[in-house]
Every structure is written in C-alpha cells, then in structure tokens.
From TrEMBL:
This is Biotin synthesis protein BioH. The keyword Cell inner membrane does not apply. Residues 44-282 form the AB hydrolase-1 domain. Residues 1-22 form the signal peptide. Pfam families: Abhydrolase_1. Keywords: Signal.
Length: 295
C-alpha cells in the first residue's frame, strides 16, 4: 500500500472512531447525545450520570480492553451544548436516542453499562426495547428513587412536591450557592478526595436548568412496573452512602426489593466506595465489568 493510500485509510479509521456511522454510511446525528467509540471487539455502550461526562469511564475502558466501547455524552452535561435537551424530560428521550443509535449503527445487541442516571436510562432502554441489548449493568441506581427523598412509604404523588422544590431550588441557585452545594454533595459521592474536583467541574459546567429537570424526572419516575420486561442478564452494583441513615443489611434489603421483578438480577454491594464506584474502587469495578462482559 502506498503511503498516501495508507494515510487516507488511517484518516477514515480515526473519523469512524470519532463519529460512529449509522446505517447507509451516514454519521449518526442527534440533538440530545453524541457518541464516540474506542477499541475493538464486542460492542459495549457506556452511559454517564447526571451532571457528569463520558470521561468517568476513562480508566475503565483502559483497564478492560478487548471491546468496542460506545461512550455516550448527554448534551448539556459536562460543558457540552444543550441542544435538544433545552426543555422537558431528559432521561426518557435520551434512552430513545440511544436505542436509535444502536439500531442505526447496526450494533448486534450490545451490552450496556450505566452509572446513576445512566443506570436509569439503561434500565428503561432494556425494558422498552427488549431486543436492543444483550445484558445490562446498573451502577448505583434504583428503579424508584422516591424513598430516598420521601421515606419508605413514598409514592409518586407524595414525593412530587419534594421533587418540585428540589427542581426549583436547583434552577434558582446562584453561582456561589451552586458551587457550595455541589462540593458538599460530591464529597458524599466520591470517597477519593483527589477525584472530587473533576466531578465538581463536570457538574458546574452542566446546564443548570437541564440538571434540575433531570433530577425532577428521576425522582418522579417509577420504573419498577417495567422491570419484568427485562429478560436479559442484569447486574446491579451499589453502595451504602455515608449519608444514608440505614445499615448495610437494610440497604441490601432495599435493593433486593427494588429489583424483585427481575429474578435473574445479580446484586452486589461494593464496600469502601461511594457513588462513583469506578473511581473509588477501580480494581474491583474493573473486575466486575470483566465478569459482566465475559459472562
């Protein structure tokens, strides 16, 4: 192969990694998400959480080679333009866009891993598009968040006023208050102090209105009635937050009850880690991902 031809081929490979191709050879375009690919092998879709970035998967991708990772970035988070996420719901339409990406890119039932809000998205996608994915990993997320905000007897109706208040407070917060709240919140989400500044930056660079609307949506959405539609293997990794006023055993019971509709679900509580398990316990997390993908 001549040098010029080699350079052209290399350029096409790089372009293909940066802009995944949809059916018909057209680059996938969306107003809600962007996707980049890394590596080669079986397909794995990675979805980050609220106010975060696909950069949270950086170490995981490096630690678990042998797969073609499709790293989703939700528009409006982590310093990206809001695009089509300017108003209304966020998680539900993003899940539909990821399903469209899987279809248009002609992925053959990839695995999907979602952290936090990304876990919510992964569950809803798998439930609403049963043939789209081959297996699901949820990282520290439950199908119904209301009990965290309204107590064990919370319902959608009882928690809605609380969710409204949280949304309105997040929307109206000035820069100083937002930074203070974000730093305090991230301190309860990441045990490794050295990793906290990056998460704080991602959150502060995220669109304020979008973050507030997404939080409201997560609190007021109950995916439990849909979980029985998930027939593929499901792995759920979770922690007991230092701020949680319950014991490890009570958290275990809560997760078992939350996923009771999915008998094939494998639940594993990760000790010595907070919400960002991939950063607080990278070796254990990589081990869990290898087992999940290789199983």
């Amino acid at each position: 192969m001549k040098r010029r031809e080699f350079v052209m081929v290399a350029a096409l490979v790089v372009a293909g990694c940066a802009a995944p191709m949809a059916a018909g050879g057209q680059a996938f375009r969306s107003e809600r998400i962007t996707v980049v690919t890394e590596g080669s092998g079986p397909d794995v879709v990675l979805v980050h959480g609220l106010g975060s970035s696909r950069d949270v998967w950086r170490e995981t991708v490096a630690a678990v080679p042998g797969y073609r990772y499709h790293l989703v970035q939700m528009n409006g988070f982590g310093g990206t333009a809001v695009g089509g996420n300017t108003s209304g719901l966020v998680a539900a339409p993003v899940a539909e866009e990821i399903a469209r990406y899987i279809s248009e890119a002609r992925l053959q039932r990839p695995a999907i891993i979602g952290h936090s809000m990304g876990g919510h998205i992964a569950m809803s996608l798998a439930a609403r598009h049963p043939g789209a994915v081959s297996k699901v990993m949820v990282v520290d997320m439950v199908p119904f968040m209301a009990p965290f905000f309204g107590g064990p007897t919370a319902t959608l109706e009882s928690v809605r006023p609380v969710a409204d208040q949280i949304r309105d407070r997040m929307t109206a917060s000035d820069a100083a208050a937002r930074r203070s709240t974000t730093e305090a919140t991230i301190a309860t989400m990441i045990r490794s102090e050295g990793r906290r500044p990056e998460a704080v930056r991602h959150s502060l660079e995220s669109d304020q209105s979008m973050s507030a609307r997404a939080m409201h949506e997560l609190i007021t959405t109950d995916l439990r009635p849909e979980l029985s539609s998930i027939k593929v293997p499901l792995t759920v990794l979770y922690v007991r937050s230092p701020a949680a006023p319950i014991t490890d055993e009570q958290m275990d019971a809560f997760y078992r009850a939350s996923f009771a509709a999915v008998p094939q679900a494998r639940l594993a509580r990760i000790p010595d880690a907070y919400h960002f398990i991939m950063w607080d316990a990278p070796e254990r997390f990589a081990q869990e991902v290898r087992s999940f993908l290789g199983g």
